[in-house]
Amino acid sequence: MKSLIRWSATLGLLGSTLLTSWFGQVPKALALPEAEVIKVLQGVPVFTITTEEGGPLIATLEDDQKVTQVFMSQEDANQFLAKLKANQPEIGNKVKVQPVSLGAVYSFALANNTETESLKFAYIPMASAVDSAKKVLSDNGQQYQGGVPLFTLRGGPDNSILTIQQDDKEVIPFFFEKAPIQAIAEQMKKDQPDIAETMQIEVIALENVIGLLQNKDDAMLKQIQLVPSQETMEFIQEAIKSQQNQGQ
After folding, report:
1. In total, how many domains does the chain have?
2. What Gene Ontology biological process does one annotation of this record name (predicted)?
């Protein structure tokens, strides 16, 4: 663990304060090229409700704002669809849960954010992650401000964000659940107790991370790695297994 753990001062701008640029309200001039932003987001499956034509299920609010939901949890998406079928079968029976990468959602957001019309995305976090985030923030004297919580560690000599050596490169991991980052913190208490005393788990909204990608010109941002929840990792493994079986 000693050789794997480092601290990145580059992401010092990340914190609990919400950035002004939220995902779904994408500025025209991106700090990182669109392809690089998509690359950071590509490895995370999310779940949408799609129509028979393959487009997203869109709700129109009272102010005529069009909104579509993006679920971090397949189970939550399935539960939403079950309620929709029960309460509005004329709609629910014509839509389905569709997995798609977060990178594809981002690309779709870019394409549907124009001066005349924009489609907003309501990102639905896992309830368990929100509960963990509220506890962490409360312990740090802060409050949950909404958004999809990501968990990381901050500490070390410069109170910096955790980085991890992965093969021949360093990555800056952000976890969709608290448990993995808690496990890293516990291991560091054994391996690097002096640094462990300075550490604390920190909650950062996914929307803030994407906002930073949109607004900050820094090559280090390419090292961000979003680590899906255990539920989503199991979905990925099942999808890979299914593809392998089809290939055979």
Report:
1. 1
2. protein transport
